[in-house]
Amino acid sequence: MLIHVILLSGCWSKKELTELAFVIGVGVDKKGGKYMITLQVVNPGNVAGATQKGGGSSGLPVTLYTSTGNTLVEASRKVSEKISRLTYYAHTNLIVIGEELAREGIKEVFDAIERNPQFRTTASVIIARQCTAKELLSVLTPIDKIPTNQMIKTLELTEKVWGENLNVHAGEVIEILSLGGKEVVMSSFRIAGNKMIGEQQNNLQSIEPYTFLHAGELAVFQKGKLISWMSGEQARGVLWLLNKIHQTAVTIDWQRTKEAISYKVVRSKTKVTAKINNGKPIISVMISMEGDIGEVLVPMDLTDPNNISLLEKKLQQEIQKEVQNTILYAQSKKSDIFGFGEVVHRLYPNEWKQLKKNWNDQYFSRLQVKVNVHAFIRRTGLRNKPYF
Amino acid sequence: MERVQLNARQLLVLAILFEHGSAMVIPLGIDARQDVWIAILCSMIFGAGLFFIYYRLFTYYPSLPLTSYSQQIVGTFFGKTIALLYILYFLYIAARVLRDFGELLLTFAYPETPLFILNAVMMMTVMYAAHKGIEVLARTGELFFFSLCLTGIVGLALVIIAGLIDVHRLQPILEEGWKRVFKVVFTQTLYVPFGEMIVFAMLFPYIDQPKKTKIVGWLAMFLSGINLASMMAINIAVLGSETVSRSTFPLLNTIREIRVANFLERLDVLFMIALVIGGFFKISIFFYAGVIGTADLFRVKEHQRLVYPLGISVLLLSIAIASNFSEHIKEGLNIVTLYMHIPLQVGIPLLLLLFAIIRHRSSFLFRKQEKK
Amino acid sequence: MWFQETSKRKQIGVFDNMLNETVENELQQNIDMIRTITGNSTDIVIREFLLGQEQEIPAGIFFVGGMTDEEMIQKLLVQSATQLTIPSSYSREDVLAYICKKIATAGKVKRIKKWHELFLALMSGEAILLIDGVAEALSMEARGGEYRAIEEPSTQLSIRGSREGFTESLATNIAMVRRRIQNPYLWLESIKIGEVTHTNVSIMYIKGIASDEVVEEVRNRLQRICMDGILESGYIEQLIEDKTFTTFPTIYHTERPDSVAANLLEGRIAIFMEGTPFVLIVPALFIQFFQAVEDYYARFDIATALRFLRVLVFFISLIAPSAYIAMTTFHQEMIPTQLVIAVAAQRESVPFPAFVEAMMMEVTFEILREAGVRLPRAVGQAVSIVGALVIGQAAVEAGFVSSAMVIVVSITAIASFATPSFAIAISARLIRFLLMILAALFGFYGILIGIILMTLHLCSLRSFGVPYMAPMAPFISTNVGDTFVRFPMWALKERPHLINQTNVVRQGSNQRPKPTNELEKEGDNH
Predict the structure, then answer these.
(1) Which of B118, B140, B276 sits opposite C473 (nearest CB)?
(2) Is residue A385 part of a domain?
(3) Residues of chain B contacting C448 with CB distance shorter than 8 Å
(4) Which of A352, B279, C109, C517 is the S-S candidate for A345 at Cβ 3.0 to 4.6 Å?
């Protein structure tokens, strides 16, 4: 008993599980010059699978708390006015930044996150598109009961199989912010449907939820400030250039039919190198990929290697165009989200010292970029000819 | 002096553990940025040179520790002064490493625990080890060496499997030229951890095969140098030099990045193992050297008697050294290097060697004359 | 052989002075003496008869009923009373000498003059023959009586391997080992220990393999024992071990003759004792407690896998509950998110802190185990049912403990059962509680400090001069093949080095099996 007393009274860093509020997602907004943080806290008892006494998950799996303060630390401490347990950030897997705050600048947000030993720099960061972070975090989701998990898993999955969204970790954002030759780009989420219903359990009672969360455009930053959005093929171009494409599908024209053939990318690799010519940097991008034919909408013979090589050529043109478009757009926005500046820095450290100062405005926007694509069609699926 | 013997393998293991000690968890020589691995390898080569000085001194007095032969070389008074300086140095460094260790532990896992408690627990373990003597410490070292190797291999494998390494982050190589690298070598990495091998001058007399000492010492420095260099290189390849230079424990951040198969993540415990075991051996060896040095200087028969008073002094010293972490680190980089590491790791050993050579030459000549 | 005639300490009885005197001349006086000293104990059988033909001499035969071979005594009586012809010219002294030579039924015959020698012989199960008119007695080896039969050892079972286990009989046990090592260099020394119990203790070693210094050390430590009695080899173990204040056993004990034989071949020394099936083996190393005889009977890959498993199991039984405490109260960040939420959900309704919960469960488990060990088998089952129901289900359902905790406790329990040696499993049990306290104070840091302290302690232990952690620390490269791993038989060329330093090679070179044609080729070359 004596030992118990000593142990229970004299434990300094001890935190019982029941004394902790597990913050799974953090939202940051700016409201009237102050930071407003939103904490999505797990209700362990209501998470499916963890029910011991058969009660089922009658309550909501998560609860939302908000508070405001001049700094993030101040705001996060102030939450204790509303919550009975110690907020615990070690399991925070998602950081949501409101669009307004992102436009003002995200540089200051990450210091508190990096400094706190509880926070993981592997937490994903997203922007709340057309809403505040708080609104985004207050939507209930089906299947993955914890909305944060739903968002992260969606993000990871879509990055992997579709490739128009980018899962960015806080650590990466911080690294990019500290570099001179790269700009931040990250995914956004938006709310599809009615925001009010999304907060209520009714949302889950319908077979198609009234409101759901939707991975959206890529947010493009310049010097830590949100300046533009990219979507669709443009967004995919960013992923090609960042070597983040795992799988995706590319549609190409065949003879006179538009969008006739789908090509499934299985593997892709991008190499970026730089050269300096007359004091001007030139970037060359080399994308090579392998994949299969996924769908054919016109009659054609896929057993013919000539057809295949024709297709490969088409593909290369298509992707080249896509990537060039993306680069042009980024250049017009003067934001080097591809990290071309870092490539120059690595290979030409001495020249970089001069280029560094005006990289985005002077050099990047007029940068000559050569894009080479090598696409290989390895297989054609279970059939070699369409049935029509 | 204890009457025990260490074999070459045990010395090797102790030296490797000692070299890794705290060096593997702190941002060692990060002022050289992405070239830090070059800096470490360079320091290793110069460190081997320093070790050769210590070894030469040992060959002149193969049965005596540093605190004894200093008296033989420069006379009783100066010799005793030097011996006392070294004892204080060893104990002070033990206290510094203890402080480092406590601070690291505090910031990363135990923010609410008083520093004194964490340090006291560690110091108790160290005192127990010193009480049991160097032989037990060496055997413990052999056991933990395996487990540390295993931890290291697992960690490395996970970092590779998780696909965290981006070699581009190590570019550009030698961005600022060799100047920055050598500045780091001669102000930081040469002394910590390589120059600290001076502490083994206290342990050399225990070795049962004195002939192997040089090879073992060099091998230990070589292996540790390579390993430390590659660890820092991996840290940078994972995190980027910018992040590494801003973090208090790059290794911890690297380990935190690991995420394999959605399950093998949050492996901070690997870091903790490295930190506690490494810290333990480094403090123990410094402390033990201080204890047997004191026993040798003041002719105390059983060094065990000194363990408790000295241990408590080191513990208190570790708290009193600095009022905050920044002050502690600044002291370590500026004052300690300039006024302690350089004179005691380089200056005095060189002088001693010089005197020893002259002494032996003259006595050699003297003997020759006698023969004639 | 080296039994001291003069006792080292004062004896117990009131008749001690008399015992130093010699046997009387007259038979009747002697019988009275025996009756007095044994207090007329009814199991002391006294049979008076007339000895021999031609010359009939009153004689008495004495033995302890139940400890002697009754059949043999019958034969002895018949022979000495009816078949023995004693020439009338013989004096009484001559008669004794004559009988000594003539009686063939007894194995070992000894002439005794002193009372205490007589009683020693009588009490150890020999038959005593006293002849009227001779102040001397004859003791005849007639040990026998009922012993437990040789059964399968109950504490160290093996699937493959001999089914014999030691019994309580010293002679049988020694014979079992002799049968396995049929070599004259298998030496045996005997000593009686215990001022009251006079227990037979034997040490056995192979001359030339066992180190003479260690044998001498064992002999000295045994001779130093001065106690009223030793009832089990555990007594000896505690009196001769190197260090008392340690939870780790520095002496190995076994019930298996094949294990003893294997250890003798490695140069160790076995200590046998009358009245217990447990034989002590010294010097013992830490790793020995993770080795089962079957490791050597199974093929090396399987044996190695099992060794790894056992070390793992030892660590689990050591740190599982403390790791649980550390994880749930200090390092929640180290548990994967899904898991931590699941555990947190279970702990929602638990009213105790994790440490108290763990302590409670571990103590309950220890109580259950203790109850199960002591109770008769029929009741034991009831205990386990109650345990399973009360702890496994009711406690969780009532919300007193979380099911995660039950899982941890069960794993720990099974792990500690899976450790091959009970001696090391029990020390892990004790250290486990210390680690739990450290974990509750400092989390993983506490556990690590605990493990460092434990390792320092282990490295400082010695068993009869041999470092306990050998051959890992100090590292002996030729012997690591038989530690956490077991190399193929042909690769285990040398005996453990620190136990024996002179005669280390135990097998010929080239023991690696090869296809026959290759062997032939080699034969050609030689």
Answers:
(1) B140
(2) no
(3) 272-273, 276-277
(4) A352
Rounded Cα distance between C403 and C26, Å, is 80
Which amino acid is it at C24? E
Contact across the interface for B172 and A349, Cβ inside 8 Å: yes
| Residue A62 covered by a domain | yes
Structure token digits, residue C285: 């190393």
Give the burial string for B276-310 (b: 16+ CB within 10 Å, else e): bbbbbbbbbbbbbbbbbbbbbbeeeeebbebbeeb
| Residues A213 and A319 both lie in one domain | no
Strand blocks (E) in chain A = 20-31, 34-42, 62-69, 86-88, 94-98, 124-128, 168-169, 185-192, 212-222, 225-230, 248-254, 257-277, 280-296, 368-379
For A161, residues 6+ apart whose C-beta sits below 8 A from its C-beta are: A246, A247, A248
Dihedral pair phi/psi, residue C251, rounded to 5° = -130, 135
Asked whether A155 and A215 are in contact (CB, 8 A), the reply is yes
Q: In the Cβ-directed half-sphere of B225, how many Cα atoms lie within 13 Å?
A: 24
DSSP secondary structure letter of residue B262 = T
Across chain C, mean pLDDT equals: 84
Cβ <8 Å between C437 and A3: yes
Which residues 6+ apart lie within 8 Å of B325 measured at CB?
B103, B107
Give pLDDT < 70 ranges for chain A: 1-12, 48-58
Chains near C (3 or more Cβ pairs under 8 Å): A, B
SS3 C248: coil
Distance from CA of B164 to the nearest CA of C (A): 19
Report the residue of chain A nearest B174, measured CA to CA: A349
Clarify whether residues A87 and A217 are in a common domain: yes
Residue pair B232/B36 in contact by the 8 Å Cβ criterion: yes
Distance from the Cα of A118 to chain B's closest Cα (Å) equals 8
Per the CB < 8 A criterion, the answer to whether A190 and A133 are in contact is no
H/E segment holding residue C432: helix C422-442
Q: Report the C-alpha gap between B136 and B125 in whole angstroms.
A: 13
Q: Using CA atoms, how far apart are residues C384 and C368, in angstroms rounded to an integer?
A: 7
Instruction: Please state, in angstroms and rounded to a whole number, the distance separating the CA atoms of residues B172 and B34.
Output: 8
B45-81 confidence digits (pLDDT tens)? 998 988 988 888 888 888 888 888 888 888 888 888 8
Q: Are A207 and A106 in the same domain?
A: yes
Range(s) of the domain holding residue A147: 18-230
Residues A214 and A349 in one domain: no
Digit-coded pLDDT (tens) for B21-44: 888 888 888 888 888 888 899 989
**A267: in domain:** yes
Instruction: Yes or no: say if C340 and C332 are a contact pair by the CB < 8 Å rule.
Output: yes
Q: Report chain C residues whose CB lies below 8 A from the CB of B269.
A: 331, 334, 444
Instruction: Report yes or no: B107 at the A interface, CB cutoff 8 Å.
Output: yes
Residue A259 sits in the same domain as residue A305: yes
Looking at the fold, whether A178 and A201 belong to one and the same domain comes out as yes
- In this structure, of A143-157, B4-18, B220-234, C360-374, the range with the lowest mean pLDDT score is C360-374
* A388 located within any domain: no
Last residue of a domain, one of A176, A199, A230: A230
Closest by CA position to B54, among listed B69, B43, B42: B69
Per the structure, how many domains does chain A have?
2
* A222 and A344 together in one domain: no
Single-letter amino acid code for the residue at C524: D
Interface contact C331-B137, CB threshold 8 A = no
Question: Looking up tokens 């012993």, which residue turns up?
Answer: C147
Pairing of strands A94-98, A124-128: parallel
CA of B142: which chain C residue's CA is closest? C473
Taking CA C359 as the corner, what is the angle to CA C358 and CA C362, rounded to the nearest 5 degrees?
A: 85
Cis peptide leading into A305, omega within 30 of 0? no
Calculate the CA B302 to chain-centre distance.
Answer: 26
Helix (H, G, I), strand (E, B) or coil at C307: helix
Q: Sign of the CA dihedral B178, B181, B184, B189?
A: negative
